[in-house]
Design a protein that fits this description.
about 350 residues, alpha/beta, Aspartate Aminotransferase, domain 1, Aspartate Aminotransferase, domain 2, 2 domains, seven-stranded mixed β-sheet, three-stranded antiparallel β-sheet, 13 helices, about 40% helix, about 15% strand, globular, pyridoxal phosphate binding, Histidinol-phosphate aminotransferase, HistidinolP_aminotransfase
Length: about 350
C-alpha cells in the first residue's frame, strides 16, 4: 500500500468495488433470466413512462440540486417536516451521505452478515471500521450479539428489515427493545428498502422515528415502486442529522426524471398496493414450489426468497445460470432468488428439483 495514503483511501484499498466479480453486466448468455438483483418484473407505475417522455426533452437542463418538489411530496405523504427528509441517488447514495456525516477514522459501524454487499464499501468510504455480526442460524439479526458488540467507538448500527438477503423482519417490539438499550449518541439506521412488501408493516407508520431521536429510516423507490433504473431514495431522520448529511450530497444527484416519477409514484397508492399484493402471492407460490422440490426456503417479507444451501450455494447458482436463470449466491451461506416472471420460475424449479435429487 502506498505510504501516506489518506484514511478513506486506506480504508477502501483492501475491498473490491461493488459487485466487481459480477459478470452479468458485461454480457450474459443469451436469454438469461435475471433473478439476482431484487428488481420487480412488473412495469413502472402508471404515468411514469409519460413523465419520462416529457422529461427527455429537458435533459440539457440541470435538476434542482435539493429535489425540493420531491421533499415537499414526501413531507406531505408522511406528515413530517421537510427538515426531516434527505433525498439522494437511491438508498445506497443516501446511506453514503449519512455515513460520511456520522463517521470518520476510529469509528465503528455494526451490521449483520451476510447482508447487502455495499455496506462494507460504504462504511470504508467514511474511513470507519465495519464490524460484521453474523446472523443467527435462523437467518435473523442477532440483536443480543450486536448490543454486546457496541463500544465507545460505535457510531452507527445498521439494521436491514426486511433483511437482505434472508427476508426476515424485525418486529416493532424487537426494534423498540433494542433501541432503548443503546448508549446515547449511537445512531441506528434501519434499512427499509423492502418495507412495502412486508404485510405486517404500514410504511407510513413512523412511530419508531417519533419515539427515538437516534433512528434513521432508509427507503428507496427502486424496489416496490419499480424505479431501480432512475436511482432515487430517501431517509427520514432528525433534522440535525439531515442538515449535516445534505452537505455531503453530490450536486444534482437526483435527476429531474427521477424526482418527477418518484412524486407521481407516491400518488399511486392503490396501484402500489395491488402490485405488492401480487408479488407477495407469487412469493408464497414460489416458496411452496421450492419447498416441494426438496429445499427449505425461509419465510420472507421481501420480494425474494432465501435458500440456506450453505457450501452448496455456489454450485446451485452455477447450475441455475447454465439453465438460463441468474440467482445471487452468498458462498457458504445461501442463495437469494428474486420473485420474477413465471417462465423464470419454471426454469429455476427444474434446476431445484434436479439439484435436490443429485445432492440429497
Amino acid at each position: 500500500m502506498p505510504p501516506g495514503l489518506p484514511p478513506r483511501a486506506a480504508a477502501t484499498a483492501p475491498l473490491p468495488s461493488y459487485r466487481e466479480d459480477d459478470a452479468s453486466y458485461a454480457g450474459s448468455p443469451g436469454g438469461l433470466w435475471d433473478l439476482s438483483n431484487n428488481e420487480i418484473s412488473l412495469p413502472p407505475l402508471p404515468r411514469v413512462r409519460e413523465i419520462l417522455r416529457r422529461e427527455s426533452g429537458q435533459v440539457h437542463l440541470y435538476p434542482d440540486p435539493r429535489a425540493r418538489f420531491l421533499v415537499d411530496a414526501l413531507s406531505t405523504h408522511f406528515a413530517v417536516d421537510r427538515e426531516s427528509i434527505l433525498v439522494g441517488p437511491g438508498s445506497a447514495g443516501v446511506l453514503q451521505q449519512l455515513l460520511l456525516t456520522l463517521c470518520g477514522p476510529g469509528d465503528d459501524v455494526l451490521y449483520a452478515t451476510p447482508g447487502f454487499d455495499a455496506y462494507p464499501l460504504l462504511i470504508a468510504t467514511s474511513a470507519a471500521r465495519g464490524i460484521p455480526v453474523p446472523l443467527t442460524a435462523a437467518g435473523d439479526h442477532d440483536l443480543d450479539r450486536m448490543r454486546a458488540g457496541i463500544t465507545a467507538n460505535t457510531r452507527v448500527v445498521i439494521l436491514c428489515s426486511p433483511h437482505n438477503p434472508t427476508g426476515k423482519s424485525l418486529s416493532p417490539s424487537e426494534l423498540g427493545e433494542f433501541l432503548v438499550g443503546l448508549p446515547p449518541g449511537v445512531i441506528t439506521i434501519i434499512d427499509q428498502a423492502y418495507v412495502e412488501f412486508d404485510e405486517a408493516i404500514d410504511p407510513q407508520d413512523l412511530e419508531l422515528l417519533h419515539r427515538h431521536a437516534d433512528v434513521v429510516l432508509l427507503r428507496t423507490f427502486s424496489k416496490a415502486y419499480g424505479l431501480a433504473g432512475l436511482r432515487v431514495g430517501y431517509a427520514l431522520a432528525a433534522p440535525p442529522v439531515v442538515a449535516r448529511a445534505r452537505k455531503t450530497a453530490i450536486p444534482f444527484s437526483v435527476t429531474r426524471g427521477a424526482e418527477q416519477t418518484a412524486i407521481a409514484s407516491l400518488r399511486e397508492g392503490d396501484a402500489l398496493r395491488h402490485r405488492t399484493a401480487h408479488i407477495r402471492e407469487e412469493r408464497e407460490r414460489l416458496f411452496r414450489l421450492l419447498s416441494a422440490a426438496g429445499h427449505a426456503p425461509l419465510p420472507s417479507r421481501g420480494n425474494f426468497l432465501w435458500i440456506p444451501l450453505g457450501p452448496r450455494s455456489a454450485s446451485f447458482a452455477e447450475e441455475s445460470a447454465r439453465a438460463g436463470v441468474k440467482v445471487r449466491a452468498f458462498p457458504g451461506h445461501g442463495v437469494r432468488v428474486t420473485v420474477g416472471d413465471e417462465n423464470a420460475h419454471r426454469l429455476l424449479l427444474s434446476v431445484a428439483r434436479g439439484f435436490g435429487r443429485a445432492d440429497g
